[in-house]
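Title: Comparing notes on inverse folding

I've been comparing how different people in this forum approach sequence design from structure. To keep things fair, I'm posting one structure and asking everyone to reply with a full sequence. Here's the target:
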């Protein structure tokens, strides 16, 4: 069982979560612009260009879905921080391994409960 995380490391992890949230919010604003409907303008966009635009839009939609999932995970981690439960598995309550949190500070399960 991992040892509880030292307070100074917890503060660093919270700061990292906040940085990631800020970067993600900026990225999501750009992605939101990229998923707008592709305009059908036969005068300025040929068939292949329109197909490229549609393909880019589809890739942006996939990115948007991943960003929304990550956004929710980071917000949930910050809520756990406020509740005083950050750094513990949300399923079994055991402390999370510090290395696991350093790689993915938004992680909510230990390796035993969440894989």
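Reply #1:
Here's my take.
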């Amino acid at each position: 069982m991992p040892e509880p995380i030292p307070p100074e490391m917890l503060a660093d992890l919270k700061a990292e979560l906040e940085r990631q949230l800020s970067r993600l919010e900026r990225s999501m604003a750009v992605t939101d612009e990229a998923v707008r409907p592709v305009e059908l303008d036969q005068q300025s966009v040929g068939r292949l260009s329109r197909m490229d635009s549609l393909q880019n839009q589809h890739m942006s939609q996939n990115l948007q879905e991943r960003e929304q999932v990550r956004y929710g995970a980071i917000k949930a981690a910050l809520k756990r921080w406020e509740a005083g439960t950050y750094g513990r598995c949300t399923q079994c309550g055991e402390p999370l391994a510090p290395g696991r949190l350093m790689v993915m500070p938004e992680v909510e399960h230990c390796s035993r409960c969440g894989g």
